[in-house]
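Query structure, 212 tokens:
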């Protein structure tokens, strides 16, 4: 018998949502184990990830670190093969740059949200001011080129680029670090992708510990 799959993460985390959307789109059933305390320094609270990062996929005693790695393992576990566009399948240079900027923006969002909202560090530090400027620039770049980027993707059921972009955009609305209002094309994309059942069943929320 195959061991159960378990995702350790947070319902409020965009990297976690990326893998949960993949799991649902691929028809792979996973248990979910929330991490309540992001300040914990105990790797056991992160399913053994020594980097103290989320999400983590556990398969019996095996563990997989990192959202993209996890998506690949989920695709291998899918009951039906699906056409997935992975970053290396993208040939168009704008679409390649778009993926790089989405990964960058997701990390910048972690830096800003964890640094300012969780750790309560001063927002006027150049560390955050520069991260916010780079994030706004990346969003403006993506907004201007979105239609060409999407058109350049090969035929597919699912792409890492679209799911990661969707999870980023909804997270920017959930934990506001920079305003999303200037980016109308991105907003339209998020609205359309958000109609999927996988998107609607993974909306962001803060996990509440039992009895909390
Ligand atoms: N490269 C990692 C990045 C994951 C990441 O940054 N996760 C955030 C949650 S969205 C996290 O662990 N934050 C806690 C921290 O940075 O200490 C991946 O692809 O999974």
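Result returned for the query:
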């Amino acid at each position: 018998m195959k061991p159960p799959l378990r995702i350790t993460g947070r319902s409020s985390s965009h990297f976690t949502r990326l893998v949960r959307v993949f799991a649902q789109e691929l028809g792979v059933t996973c248990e979910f184990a929330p991490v309540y305390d992001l300040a914990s320094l105990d790797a056991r609270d992160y399913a053994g990830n020594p980097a103290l990062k989320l999400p983590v996929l556990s398969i019996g005693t095996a563990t997989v670190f990192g959202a993209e790695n996890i998506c690949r393992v989920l695709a291998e576990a899918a009951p039906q093969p699906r056409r997935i566009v992975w970053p290396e399948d993208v040939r168009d240079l704008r679409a390649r740059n778009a993926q790089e900027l989405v990964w960058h923006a997701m990390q910048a969002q972690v830096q800003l949200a964890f640094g300012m909202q969780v750790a309560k560090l001063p927002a006027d530090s150049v560390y955050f001011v520069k991260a916010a400027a780079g994030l706004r620039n990346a969003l403006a770049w993506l907004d201007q080129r979105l239609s060409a980027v999407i058109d350049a993707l090969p035929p597919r059921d699912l792409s890492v680029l679209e799911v990661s972009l969707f999870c980023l955009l909804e997270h920017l609305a959930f934990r506001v670090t920079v305003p999303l209002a200037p980016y109308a094309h991105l907003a339209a994309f998020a609205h359309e992708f958000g109609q999927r059942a996988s998107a609607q069943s993974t909306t962001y929320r803060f996990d509440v510990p039992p009895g909390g």
